[in-house]
Amino acid sequence: MNSYLTLTKTFIAAIGMSRPQDKRRKVMIAILSLFAVFGILLPVSVGVGVLVNLMTNTLLPIGCEALGIQLMFHVICLFTLVFGINVIFNEFYFSNDIEFLLPWPLKAYQIIASKFTAAFINENMMQFFLVLSCIIGFGTGAKISLASWLMSIIGIITLPVIPLAYCGVLSMLLMAFTKLIKSKDVIQKISVGLMFIMVVVLVGSIGFLQNMDIDSYVATLASGDQTFFNVMNYIFPNVPLFVKTFHEGSITALIGYIAVNALVIAIMLFLSEKLYFKGVIGLTSSDSKAGRQDLDKLLAKSIQRKPFVSYLLKEVRLLVRTPVYFTNCIAINFLWPIFAYAMIKISGYKVSVARLTHYYAHRDLRILLFFHLGIVGLSVVMAAINSLSSNAISREGKHFSFMKYIPVDYFTQWHVKAFVGIIFPFTGIMVFFLPVCILLKIPLLHILFYIFLSLLAVFFISYMGVYIDSIQPKLIWDDEMSSLRENYNTFFAMAISIGFVLVVCVGGFFLFCNTKISIAFVGFLLTVILLIANIVVLSLTSHSGVRNIQEQEEA
Fold first, then answer.
1. How many contiguous H segments (helices) and E segments (strands) does the chain have?
2. Contacts of 32 (CB under 8 A, 6+ apart)
3. Are 452 and 465 in contact (CB under 8 A)?
4. By CB count within 10 A, which of 128, 278, 309, 547 is most buried?
């Protein structure tokens, strides 16, 4: 037990963000944490809770009120399974501590139990709030008893255990009996493939969502046709037991829930004793075999460029050649029309090019306001969601010292990292936005103004992201996915961006609707706000940005 606890504490410390090094950084991290809580955690949790409450009240008359929250829990477990594969594989087999652990007199189950606990705690933070909000939404709708509220606590903490344990079992079976996965590069490619499959599934489900009739669906449930739930209950047996525990206040279901979780964990630990060392011994962290080049050949291939260009090419090549970065930081900039199309289809709003062209030609205030606020909101969100800037310094990892010793000043490096965070989201927006403008026959001056607004918004978020990452970068990580998923700076930047959109865009909408200001004044107001925001973030950069890098200790 002592070995397990010691290892778990060590792994948790290795996975988590390092602590701020001085009081100034502590204060800034605390402020950013408040933005994250009130900008992302609370709004998302409230939204999920309201959705579950609505489903509960809709299904209550037919006696199926528990199916709404059961559906949400199955979705949470499914997403945990998909996104947990990369985390568990890397933590079990490709973390940098493996070569140091193997010589120690440790049992395989001790290593697996400790690594699993550390990964579980790290992955459970957001899910904790989601599960809690689901239970609050259901509890207020179904009016469950005090005993049920208390019994739900155990499931709030432990719901993701089984899907993550499935990932652990799958990883050990594949690593022990196949030669399919022998490096983290393969895992990254599998993760990329799964993400694209999820996008395809999303696109394929758009038609179903558009034509879905809630009344007919409720009637189907009332008739007893619950095929989806029957299948998912076999895959995740913890979900129906957990729901029955707090829905009916069943002690028997609670005991069954604990027993099922304990059984799956026991199976994983049993397999670890039989399979873990067989799969982990002899692994290398990468399957790339780079040959040594003669110094003369290397110099012959080298081309002398300006520092800005050379450093820019280094950043772009890193992003494009790394599957995780390419998917999460680059490709996402060009996938947003899929989600926009899905939202339009789900809403049932009929979009006609001729109709929109007519509205814009006659200067309809609604469509003008939509373009003014929409281009700013889209630019802010896209520049933040790709993690390009908020992960700019953390991407250096153990090579952070490279930033300090190369003959390129800090400001040049800073501007390059921010520039990379500008060109990809801005290009991704313009590739689709400009054809729409041409299709709708929008005047050239209007198009130039929208481009100007978008550029200001992306510029602000990019420099802000780099500044946030400079405060406390995540430099200790085992794989590129960890540098993204375990980096709170990405979370902070996204929270500030959402807050900015709510204040500027949503606030601008209500201001326009409730006052007599003109659409030209809205454009002027947006320009002034964005200019001020850019001046503030550039001022922060010049005053303390470089100092943050200078004072940062190497990984």
1. 28, 0
2. 468, 471, 488, 489, 492, 495, 496
3. no
4. 128
Sign (positive/negative) of CA torsion 424, 430, 433, 439? negative
Q: Could you give the maximum distance between any two Cα atoms of the chain, in Å?
A: 80
Distances (CA, A) of 254 to 146, 150, 236: 15, 11, 15
Residue partners of 548: CB distance under 8 A and separation at least 6: 25, 467, 470, 471
Residue 224 vs residues 62, 70, 217: alpha-carbon distances, Å = 11, 16, 11
Measured in degrees and rounded to the nearest 5, phi and psi for residue 386 equal -85, -10
CB atoms within 10 A of CB 236: 23
CB atoms near residue 149 (< 10 Å): 14
Query: For residues 117 and 113, what is the distance between their CA atoms, to the nearest angstrom?
Result: 6
The residue among 498, 371, 354, 536 whose CA lies nearest residue 445 is 371
The answer for residues whose C-beta is within 8 angstroms of residue 338's C-beta and 6 or more apart is 199, 202, 203
One-letter amino acid identity for 48? V
Provide the 8-state DSSP code for 130: H
Q: Which structure tokens are listed for 35? A: 């933005």
- Angle, CA of 329, 470 and 494, to the nearest 5°: 45
- Say how far apart CA 265 and CA 191 lie, in whole Å: 24
Spatial CA neighbour of 181 closest among 280, 324, 291, 109: 280
SS (H, E, C) 132-166: HHHHHHHHHHHCCCHHHHHHHHHHHHHCCHHHHHH
From the CB of residue 434, how many other CB atoms can be counted at a distance below 10 Å? 14
Taking the C-alpha atoms of residue 445 and residue 263, their distance in angstroms, rounded to an integer, is: 66
Q: Which residue has the tokens 């499914």?
A: 78
Q: From first to last of its 555 residues, what are the pLDDT tens digits of the chain? A: 677 777 777 777 666 656 666 666 677 777 777 767 776 777 778 888 888 888 888 778 777 778 888 888 888 888 888 778 878 887 887 777 777 777 788 888 888 888 888 888 877 777 888 888 889 988 888 888 888 888 888 888 888 899 999 988 988 888 877 766 666 666 666 666 666 666 566 555 555 545 545 555 555 555 555 677 788 888 899 999 998 888 888 899 999 999 999 999 999 999 988 888 887 776 544 444 444 445 566 556 666 778 888 888 889 988 888 877 887 888 888 877 776 766 666 555 666 778 888 888 888 888 899 899 999 999 999 999 888 999 889 888 888 888 888 888 888 889 999 999 999 999 999 999 999 899 888 999 999 999 999 999 999 999 999 999 888 888 877 667 777 777 888 888 888 898 899 889 988 888 888 888 888 999 999 999 999 999 999 998 888 887 888 877 765
Instruction: Round to whole Å and give the CA distance between 395 and 316.
Output: 12
pTM listed for this prediction: 0.73
Which amino acid makes up residue 407? P
CA torsion sign for 455, 461, 467, 473 is negative
Alpha-carbon span 376 to 23, nearest angstrom: 35
